Amino acid sequence: HVQLVESGGGSVQAGGSLRLSCAASGRTYSKWCTGWFRQISGKEREGLATIDSRGITAYADSVKGRFTISKDNAKSTLFLQMDSLKSEDTAMYYCAVGWRTGDTCYYSDFGRGTQVTVS
To answer: How far apart are CA 34 and CA 22, in angstroms?
Structure first.
């Protein structure tokens, strides 16, 4: 398994920015993919952004143009830059890692999450 630890969450005013980090350790996949998810209490988890071993990124419509996913392979760290935050972005944010087959990512491990509150 891969151990994932998120950080960088907090409280911010609407229109502000936050940068989330996700430190990974443990096994890796030759064809890997990573992503950010969020979940509001009582609602289903929502996929926000992905980046894979080819460097290909994808975003949910709800965050496209506002959030940017990136990675530092040397430090095994994943980032999510969140700009122009809205109150509806308030949620628990999780990073995840998995393996890729073609363009499909199969997530195997999730972190414990970091809370983001936008007021």
So the answer is: 10
